[in-house]
Amino acid sequence: KAKVALFPTRIREACPVTPLELGMCGTPVIAYPTGGTKELIKDGVNGFLVNNVEEMIEKVQEAYLLDRKQCHLFTKENFSSEKMAKEYLKVYERQINGSEN
Description:
Elements: E1 5-7, H1 17-24, E2 29-31, H2 37-40, E3 47-49, H3 53-64, H4 68-79, H5 81-100
Parallel strand pairs: 1-2, 2-3
Helix pairs in contact: 1-4, 4-5
C-alpha cells in the first residue's frame, strides 16, 4: 500500500526487480537513471528519474499525484513475463537469422 517508493541505488543493474514489482503493485518509483532503471521508469507515468537526493525529495509530492492504475498498466504492458518472453524470442530469432545469412 505504499504511495511512493524511493529507489536510491546507483548500482548499474541490468534489470532491477524492485521497480518492476513496485510498478506491478501500482506504486510510483523515484530512482536514479542507472542501468536498466532508466528503461523501467517513464517520467510522469510510473515514476520519475532524478539525478540527486534533492530532486528525489522534490518529486515525492508530484509522485503522489500519479495514477496508480497507469503505473500498473505501463509496467504490465512493457515488462510482464509474457511481454518479456516474446521480446526475448524476437532477439533470439534475429540472432539466429543474422548468423545464418
